[in-house]
Design goal:
Layout: H1 7-24, H2 29-36, H3 40-49, H4 54-63, H5 67-71, H6 82-90
Helix pairs in contact: 1-3, 2-3, 2-4
């Protein structure tokens, strides 16, 4: 599946979801910031611009009881079949990223 969203679009969508979860939990920005151990300025910047450190995003997720969702990021995709697994084992073990 091709993603037509930019990284900035995704940042804003995640920030909107966190804000929605905050409001559903009936937390003020100040209250969530205190519970999460994140500065109020960082939370405001995140909700407004989508900018936040990964560490602070994880803290917010825990404060909102969304740690399972954040922990599920980048899970390995399940293999389609035994044939696919066998084909993958034939590929050399060592793989490197392309130099840019």
């Amino acid at each position: 599946m091709v993603n037509i969203l930019s990284p900035e679009d995704i940042q804003i969508k995640v920030a909107q979801r966190v804000k929605s979860a905050r409001l559903t939990a009936n937390f003020t920005q100040q209250g969530l910031a205190l519970r999460a151990g994140v500065s109020l300025g960082s939370l405001k910047r995140f909700e407004g611009e989508g900018e936040i450190s990964l560490k602070n995003l994880i803290r917010l997720a825990f404060a909102l009881r969304l740690e399972d969702e954040i922990g599920a990021l980048f899970q390995p995709k399940p293999s389609a079949s035994l044939d696919t697994l066998l084909d993958q084992s034939k590929i050399s073990q060592r793989q490197r990223g392309r130099k840019s």
